[in-house]
TrEMBL record:
Ranges where the record places region Disordered: 1-29
Catalytic activity: [E2 ubiquitin-conjugating enzyme]-S-ubiquitinyl-L-cysteine + [acceptor protein]-L-lysine = [E2 ubiquitin-conjugating enzyme]-L-cysteine + [acceptor protein]-N(6)-ubiquitinyl-L-lysine
Residue intervals of the RING-type domain: 118-332, 122-170
One BP annotation, GO: protein ubiquitination
Alphabetic keyword roster: Metal-binding, Repeat, Transferase, Ubl conjugation pathway, Zinc, Zinc-finger
SMART domains for the chain: IBR
PROSITE patterns: TRIAD (PS51873), ZF_RING_2 (PS50089)
Function field: Might act as an E3 ubiquitin-protein ligase, or as part of E3 complex, which accepts ubiquitin from specific E2 ubiquitin-conjugating enzymes and then transfers it to substrates.
Residue ranges, compositional bias (Acidic residues): 1-13
InterPro entries the record matches: Ariadne, ARIH1-like_UBL, E3_UB_ligase_RBR, IBR_dom, Parkin-like_IBR, TRIAD_supradom, Znf_RING, Znf_RING/FYVE/PHD
Protein name: RBR-type E3 ubiquitin transferase
Top-level taxonomic group: Eukaryota
GO molecular function: ubiquitin protein ligase activity; zinc ion binding
Length: 544
């Protein structure tokens, strides 16, 4: 049982792009080259500052704000510029600024001196303080520098450095970051650097459109998407992952389905089901006992004899027809129903897991075709033949990987889509049966064509004559187109006929892309000279 339910194989993940490393692809018959101008960007530690300043400049120019106030607004709205502008249009500038803690009278703030020229009573320490060692914030509240510094140090150590509010009672204004940096650096330079790093990394930590690459060990990159956050991306380090849940790409499974399936394969839930179906607990020591003979009088290793039919403790005297002093002919409905349900659930899980595991094994074996394909292509190109273009093999191999992956994850999807764990009340039994037949018909068509494509790609075409090679070529090209079409139709069926009628907000899936998971492009940018105070030597490991 341990071997069967082990998920160790599932944890090994292969990138279909990695499997094609070194193979060219410019076949006009079937163009799968990723499009130019990808919508996802790789943000390195060098380009993070510029990525952040791009959004800052946009808000600063639109609202005529200083950088500090623009950053405060963006952090409050999780760096979503479109959401920020929507709030501005719907609720107005006053509500936008008040909710984020930005003073409305910014023009007046620019004319007010940061330091008073006379003696000031600090309402925190209740002492008269020379104006030169006091600081006035944008909200016009003025306190001594020592009180401000202590306040800032406490907030930074508490992890609130991205939104440090004014000390005044019921004042929600956010303190000027330059003032915070200047006062803290005089006493604790390291803490000031920590404050800077928190401000910089807020672009990733607080931004729903930017996430760290989950590679291990960490590559130091972050990925920024431009559109739907339910998508699958590839980092420049080569790792492909689901942007929503940061696990391996798993569409057409939703993130919740994949999380439940991974847990089911990883834990002992099905082992428990097997024990429930095939064993009975000893009435004395309660250990599970498996029956290995035909007699219904069984004995536990603790010495206790009991009846296999009802589980009741008995003596050892028995005949072929009955156990001495024991009768259990009465039907116990609850116990029988529980056993039958556990048996049904186990067999259903085994059905889907067997097919999931079979396609996973095929996917791993087909990844090894890369070296074989390269050898066959090299041998074919050395022949004196009119056939010189063998990129159709590369295209077919890529389509095989892509389609096999769709099939692989379609079985966990079907397990939950047509089971009772997630959609018990959303469909009647009749509706569930109709939808299941619709999906399984498409799944079987795809499966049949994927297997045919795999068969033709394994042909020793380097040993064939030109006519037979052309025949294999046409089959591979046609099957590549067919499998791509079937994959697209399966996704349309899932999105429209299956999940489209249910709670899509909970079960969004990454869209199907026939050209594969898009590799994020590097964000080439340099920091401005005016931003030297922001450190660039950071990484994910630096987070505190």
């Amino acid at each position: 049982m341990d071997d069967y339910f082990s998920s160790e194989e599932e944890e090994e993940y292969c990138s279909d792009r990695d499997a094609l490393d070194g193979l060219e692809n410019d076949d006009p018959d079937y163009d799968w080259v990723p499009p130019k101008g990808p919508s996802t960007k790789v943000i390195t530690k060098e380009s993070l500052l510029c990525a952040q300043r791009g959004d800052l400049r946009r808000v600063m120019e639109l609202l005529s704000l200083r950088e500090h106030h623009a950053r405060t607004l963006l952090i409050h709205h999780r760096w979503d510029v479109e959401k920020l502008l929507a709030v501005l249009v719907e609720r107005g500038k006053a509500c936008l600024f008040a909710d984020a803690g930005v003073p409305l009278t910014e023009d007046q703030d620019l004319s007010l001196p940061r330091h008073s020229t006379s003696t000031v009573m600090c309402d925190i320490c209740m002492e008269d303080i020379p104006g030169q060692i006091t600081t006035r914030m944008d909200c016009s509240h003025c306190y001594c520098n020592d009180c401000w510094t202590e306040h800032f140090i406490v907030k930074i150590n508490e992890g609130q450095s991205k939104r440090i509010k004014c000390m005044a009672h019921k004042c929600n204004a956010i303190c000027d970051e330059a003032t915070v940096r200047d006062l803290v650096r005089r006493r604790h330079p390291d803490l000031a650097n920590k404050f800077d790093r928190f401000l910089l990394e807020s672009y990733i930590e607080d931004n729903k459109m930017v996430k760290w690459c989950p590679s291990t060990p960490h590559c130091g990159n972050a990925i920024r998407i431009e559109e739907d956050e339910c998508c699958e991306v590839e980092c420049s380090c080569g790792l492909q992952f689901c942007f929503s849940c940061l696990s391996e790409p798993h569409s057409p499974c939703s993130c919740l389905m994949w999380e439940l399936w991974s847990k089911k394969c990883r834990d002992e839930s099905e082992t428990v089901n097997w024990i429930t179906v095939h064993t009975k607990p000893c009435p004395k020591c309660h250990k599970p006992v498996e029956k290995n003979g035909g007699c219904n009088l069984v004995s536990c290793i603790c010495g206790q004899a009991f009846c296999w039919l009802c589980g009741g403790a008995t003596g050892r005297d028995h005949t072929w027809s009955n156990i001495a002093g024991h009768s259990c002919g009465r039907y116990k409905e609850d116990q029988e129903q529980k056993s039958e349900r556990a048996k049904r659930d186990l067999y259903r899980y085994m059905h889907y897991h067997n097919r999931y595991k079979a396609h996973l094994d095929s996917f791993k074996l087909e990844n090894k075709l890369r070296e074989t394909i390269q050898e066959k292509v090299s041998a074919s190109e050395e022949k004196e033949s009119a056939l010189r273009d063998f990129t159709w093999v590369t295209n077919g191999l890529y389509r095989l990987f892509r389609s096999r992956r769709v099939l692989l994850y379609s079985y966990p999807f079907a397990f939950y889509m047509f089971g009772e764990e997630l959609f018990t009340d959303e469909m009647t039994d009749e509706q569930r049966e109709i939808k299941q037949h619709l999906f399984e018909d498409q799944q079987q068509q795809l499966e049949a064509n994927v297997e045919r494509l795999s068969k033709f790609l394994e042909e020793p075409f380097d040993e064939y004559d030109e006519k037979k090679v052309m025949d294999v070529r046409m089959h591979v090209i046609n099957l590549s187109v067919v499998t791509d079409t079937l994959c697209r139709k399966m996704y349309e069926c899932i999105e429209t006929d299956l999940l489209g009628c249910l709670a899509l907000g909970t079960h969004n899936i990454a869209p199907y892309k026939s050209k594969g998971i898009e590799r994020a492009a590097a964000l080439n940018a340099k920091a401005d000279e005016s931003d030297k105070y922001l450190p660039l030597d950071f990484g994910k490991a630096d987070l505190v």
